[in-house]
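hey so u asked for the seq, here:
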Amino acid sequence: MPVLDTQKSVAEYAQLVKRLAYQLAARLPSSVQVDDLVQAGMMGLLDALNYYDESHGAQFETYATQRIRGAMLDELREADWAPRSVRKNAREIEQAIHRLEQELGKSPTEQQIADRLSVPLAEYQEMLADARGHQLVHYDDFENDDGESIAFNLADGRPSPFQLLHDEGMRASLVKAITELPERERLLMAMYYQEDLNLKEIGAVLGVSESRVCQLHSQAIMRLRSKMTDWVNG
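ran it, structure tokens below
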């Protein structure tokens, strides 16, 4: 893209950066500042302007969106925004789910998970709410600039279940894991990632509060990670 177009293009796509920043912030704790995401996103936009090659066939906005999101996610990882207690609780929940699934041969209920953690159900649900954003995934983030599958784990550096989608066996295992989610969580995942509904809209469909949707989303992601433990750790 010609240098003379850069200033005009930055102004033109600034709204795209802001929109992506607010979409991302909605999935994260309130401690994450939208302005920080916007600043990182603007750097991603500049990278997109510098490196875009229309001969590769991708539309500029598609390419820029990947660069902008990637820059924002890099900023979050570097900032290490997730408190240690959140990472610890999330890891313990995943381990509890994994062990219960092995023992029961099916997805455990919330009460069973809470019992395994030796906490009241209400406290377990608070742990789920605190883990909001601990696993941040989006179907559009599965490819890098070369079309290769990627994903991001922002909290502890371990790969998410989605990080190995380039592997056919992993992809098949993930699809199977999603189909084995409890029906309500499976529906939630489809509405959130495929239909791009927000938490409030999903709550209206499911007949629950927005905060409850947040809890269920966190739990669904942790169920997926627990199902993919062998792949993730192997």
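DSSP finds eleven helices and no strands in the chain. The longest helix spans residues 84-104.
lmk if thats what u needed
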